[in-house]
Automatic annotation (TrEMBL):
SMART domains, per the entry: PKS_ER
GO MF annotation list: L-iditol 2-dehydrogenase (NAD+) activity; zinc ion binding
Enzyme Commission numbers on file: 1.1.1.14
Keywords of the record: Metal-binding, Oxidoreductase, Zinc
Protein name, entry field: Sorbitol dehydrogenase
Domain (Enoyl reductase (ER)): residue spans on this chain: 8-339
Amino acid sequence: MKSMKLTGLRQMQMMEGPAPELVRDDDVLITMKAVGVCGSDVHYYETGRIGSQVVAYPFAVGHEGAGEVAAVGTAVTKVKPGDRVAIDPANPCGTCDQCRAGRPHTCRHLTYLGCPKQAEGCLSEQIVMPEDSCLPLPDDVSYEEAAISEPLSIGMYAVELSVPVPGTRIGILGAGPIGLSVLLPARAQGAKAIYVTDKLDPRIALAKKAGATWGGHPDREDIVARVLEQEPGGLDVVFECCGEQDALDQAIDLLKPGGKLMLIGIPPTAERVSFEIDKLRHKEIAIQNVRRQNGCAQKAIDLIAQRVFDVNLMTTHRFDFARTAEAFDLVAAYRDGVVKAMIHF
């Protein structure tokens, strides 16, 4: 079986290895069909780490995946060979205090696809996942759409965690796949105005196509001044989706008193970020971190199937499995208007 593995900084290699086997009664063997390249995958590719999570080479990343069921364990009842599935990359223990409290995404013993020291990723011809991580696909949902359901579920969870959306004025700083995954459900839920920023013009254009009220480039204009011209009272909630200090500063200035800042973006290093505490205190800003998604994977597939919005606009580039390194280099360099690069098997 072939797997594409990181072998060093900005290096990867196709490697042969034994085919995965069913070990537990609830295991499902999946033949991969599509994998999306995530920004976190690129962090590991470029720097070998995200915070305290450090790659031990060789290692396969990838967690936005979909495929076809090849074989199932004796206790599996939800899927059968030949079924098409989206893959929930999280595998919580189900018994710790976090799981019992309805927070499996912060499980004390969580293993997550493509996360160092937890589980190899899905950039392989086949992988094994527990039955609970296999989400059957409706006939009219493609493998690409199923792979995109993973980042979409993060955006949906962030929106759920934020504020009641109908009639709100929101900001989204960073219009990559996660920013767009916030925009789509926020628009569908009735946000009154959505202000989006990004440093790539094609992404701004795509955000407008997806329903943003306004889009701006932070290197060419005063984002705060431009938005507040249109919303003098400030925004109800801002979703920080790019992991940049400048965006955090802009978010605090954009928010109205009592507003809420949602932190989704991953900073490029493990260093601290900072806030101007005087503004935070005087405006009584609430800050909410977003850790992946919680209970939104199936909801994301359902909304895709219902055609509430079109996630296909995110996929801008496609590569065969053998060309995975080209996809990573493209995404890492933000070339050619890339938003989501998709790997096909």
